[in-house]
């Protein structure tokens, strides 16, 4: 976006006045006067006037629902809005018992690394946000192109057919929006039998309330090729990238997953010539749904996998950024070579996404715990003066460690990690 533009400049839909509540105590951007600490965000919702306004807006929309499934909460993790989101999810948990609460913790790609005050605030906000948001949510998912949520710098996530500047919110938010729109399709579509709570219950067993998001944007499908043809090329390495700021693991391991593929044509079984065997077990399947399900069982043996195949692609018309490779057609399919003339704008793309309860989350959560354990809280009195007590912070830190242990696989590496990091 041009300098000085805001997210509302790119919003094509009118918003009802009841759908907005502006926090006027803090500036939207700048070096001072920002909502920068978890405790500041929590205290906003502890103000009776603010809480009453938020409840009024919630009740207005809840009363309009014929059948309320639950709530999606999109919340910044890196700043004081993690505290706002924590109190909002607590309010929803108390007011709407039994309804689904799916929370998405968003983090921009940042260049702040090391022990700078801003980076340490980010780290503490993120850890407290994960603990509090997952506590009152049916399911919580960190979502970012950032390579890490911890102190050690990592390169941002890249995609093979997108020329993306991950430091631009315009670019990174477009990719995350396409992933989010696809991930949530199973409980948003009228044609889908699943619900928000059903999705959560398939993934959050054994205390695993945190899940990781994966996405292939765009999914590398070619014109004239079947889904079985495409997936056969990815038997050893799935074509998606991790969007939850965890270090990727080569081993294909997960406890449970929900996978959505969209924008590929539905197809029946291709009959082989008489006496000739199908090219692969995937080619022997009767439908695209069966192809995807068999692929998941092959790549993730022993995992509980649910899958959905949707014909509707992701819409990438303006204001979606045109950062696609010239090797993509207008419909987002791969071409063998770039067109001779100037390529047309990509108007839609196929996409593949997954929500996984995975051992990779142990690395993320335990890594945050280790980074924070090394800090001396007394050096950051300004953070705690905003409303977080030292004792509560230590309890939250232990809760983060306990949460990380839900994703251990019993390979014996965790205790050795702990001993190696002890002072």
From TrEMBL:
One of its GO terms (biological process) is mitochondrion organization. One of its GO terms (cellular component) is mitochondrion. It is found in: Cytoplasm. InterPro entries: DML1/Misato, DML1/Misato_tubulin, Tubulin/FtsZ_GTPase_sf. Residues 6-189 form the DML1/Misato tubulin domain. Keywords: Cytoplasm. It holds the Pfam family Tubulin_3. Its main location: cytoplasm. CDD domains: misato. It comes from the Eukaryota. PANTHER family: MITOCHONDRIAL DISTRIBUTION REGULATOR MISATO (PTHR13391), PROTEIN MISATO HOMOLOG 1 (PTHR13391:SF0). This is Protein misato 1.
